[in-house]
Structure formats: structure tokens, C-alpha cells
Amino acid sequence: MADESKFEQVKGNVKETAGNVMDNKDLEQEGKEDKASGKAKEVTENAKDKVNDFIDKLKK
């Protein structure tokens, strides 16, 4: 899953840069949204991992 969120961030960065270079504000905005979505997924995944690690420690 972490790879998916990183890929989404990279894809967003490419779109944002392309939109900026081509002066395409819609593409640039779409890229920003993809980056933000990917980052949010990454943060959620990290939080889930930490909770699961904590639960595993409690079970021991």
C-alpha cells in the first residue's frame, strides 16, 4: 500500500509540473490534488501501522 501512495504523489507531481509548464491550470490543480491524496493515504497507512505495532506489543 505504501507504494501506491508514493506512486500517487509522484503522479501528482508530474501532473502539477506538466500543468505548470504548459500553463494548464486544470492539470496543475489535478496534480496538486493527487499529491495531497497520496500524502493523506501515506499518513493513514503509517498511523495504521503504528496502531497495529502497539496492539502487537500489548498481546505479548
Summarize the structure in short:
It contains two helices and no strands.
Give me the number of helical elements: 2
The succession of helices and strands, N to C, reads HH
- Shape, please? rod-shaped
Task: Indicate the proportion of strand residues.
Answer: under 5%
Helix content: over 70%
Largest sheet: none
Mean pLDDT: 95
Q: Rg from C-alpha positions? A: 16 Å
What is the end-to-end distance?
A: 26 Å
Report low-confidence residues grouped into runs of 5 or more: none
Total strands: 0
Q: From the helix content, strand content and strand pairing, which structural class follows? A: mainly alpha
Q: What would your notes on this structure say?
A:
By secondary structure, the chain is an all-alpha fold. It contains two helices and no strands. Residues 1-60 are annotated as: Disordered.
Please tag this protein with its features.
92% helix; rod-shaped; 60 residues; mainly alpha; 2 helices
Show the helix and strand layout.
Elements: H1 2-21, H2 25-59
Helix pairs in contact: 1-2
